[in-house]
Amino acid sequence: MMTKTGLFFGSFNPIHNGHLSIAKNLVELSDLEEIWFVVSPQNPLKKKNGLLADYQRLALVKLAIEEYSFLKACDIEFTMPRPSYTIDTLNLLARKYPNRQFILVMGSDGLEKFACWKNHEQITRQFTRYIYPRPGTPPSLLQNIPNAKIIEAPRMDISSTIIRESLSKGENVSSFLPPKVYHEIINNQLYRNIS
Questions:
Q1: What 8-state DSSP symbol labels residue 117?
Q2: What pLDDT was estimated at residue 47?
């Protein structure tokens, strides 16, 4: 029997309580058995400035999820051509792990640009998407999405960008981050010189 595995893609720059809350709720409220945090070296639709090194972001993800057996960190995109495209990663993972059924986990804010994704029609045909609503998404955008399920998740308005900006100013963001992640960032002065 195939293990239903959600793939939560992101730069996780840094991973925060919003990411964790969404992942935990998706496992509790859906048929997903695991969620893998796929740490992306570079999102083709985003600028790279302010991006912490790949291995540092992966280390923070591992710290954040170490007490949850159903959450995993995945660095498969680190060895792929850059920029990495979701369809290529999905195809590679499907070949590498034939006993898993991979589900693409995405926020509703990603729907507006989904038509810009490489081979988005192939993603829709071959992979189910579990979509969690984000604050500000018009309800009309969440209707009639092919091969997708809307999964309710906490609508936490936490932004990695705001966390980075606050850290660069020396502000306390401990309430937004898992404790071990916060201490690692503070102890190593991460994000002090980038925004």
A1: S
A2: 61
